[in-house]
Amino acid sequence: MIKDIKGLHHVTSMAADASENNAFFTNVLGLRRVKKTVNFDAPEVYHLYYGDEIGTPGSVMTYFPFGQMPSGRRGTGEVGITEFAVPTGALTYWQDRLTAAGVAGLEKSEAFGEARLSFDGPDGDSFALVESDARGRTPWTGGDVPEEYGILGFRGARFRLNDAAATGELLNFMGYQKADTSGDLTRYVIEGGNAADTIDIEAIPSAKSATQGAGSVHHIAFAVEDRARQLEVRKALLDTGYQVTPVIDRDYFWAIYFRTPGGILFEVATNEPGFDRDEDTAHLGQALKLPTRYEPYRNQIEGLLPAIGN
Ligand code: ZN
């Protein structure tokens, strides 16, 4: 069994409009944009990263805003809900704030003893704010969300699957322990994790598969401390029969990817080197950062990317 995974590192989704995406995550949710770069495989598309002050692993929501793109359809074989943690007692504030911002899909509920507020993102993305202990995490306070209500990073994610068993076994292998069940939900938790450490599997045997598009999660990334541990995780997955990519340099972390039995694309990403490797903490996310191989084309790339505001 793998012992080096600490919870989530980041979640990457697809969007249509870049400017609308940026405004939602910074102005409405009060996250900090910690990096403005491009999709390394399609440099005419942004890769925008939102998180806490420094983009701590376990806090980072990232987007590829493709411009004109049809919306995805929710279903099975995908990350159904991306869940952020907020301090206990914060949901009333958020319900008022999101209502005032015209956010769709607002609904309060409870799961595993935690109060939740579900809501939709600009492209119909499914999110929830979950009241949770801070566990040493602090929100970004550079926006107008008061510190006592601010988003603390991810709580976890809910997978929607036709068959829960194989993905549950994989999570066990990755170090998650089955913690609780409630209806068709099974909760998995990492002991001693980074607080972004729950995965809930919702088993819906007869539901249709999701189709990917704007508002869909593209992949979900799990955190390991460093490159040595990542190589150990890669070997363990290969030895178990998973087809894992080589290690890929993403400038702010190192990444490996593999497809899971339920259809979700998993990544394992390193906590090193982090988002301050090419700009100082005070100015994170302001300038357009390009990987070295695209620097010679900066003028053309800047000409293709839409303006998104601060
Ligand atoms: Zn990723």
Task: Characterise the protein shown here.
45% of the residues are buried. With 310 residues, the protein is α+β, with helices and mostly antiparallel strands. It is globular and about 50 Å long. The chain has helices spanning 18-28, 91-100, 165-173, 227-239, 298-304, and strands spanning 8-15, 32-39, 42-51, 60-65, 78-86, 107-111, 114-120, 126-131, 154-161, 176-182, 185-190, 198-203, 217-224, 248-249, 253-259, 265-273. The protein has a single domain (8-304), classed as 2,3-Dihydroxybiphenyl 1,2-Dioxygenase, domain 1, CATH 3.10.180.10. The protein has an eight-stranded mixed β-sheet.
CATH superfamily caption: 2,3-Dihydroxybiphenyl 1,2-Dioxygenase, domain 1
CATH topology: 2,3-Dihydroxybiphenyl 1,2-Dioxygenase, domain 1
Element pattern in H and E: EHEEEEHEEEEHEEEEHEEEH
The Rg value, from CA coordinates, equals 18 Å
Can you count the beta strands?
A: 16
CATH architecture: Roll
Beta-strand portion reads: 35-45%
Number of helices: 5
Structural class: alpha+beta
Residue runs with pLDDT of under 50 for 5 or more positions: none
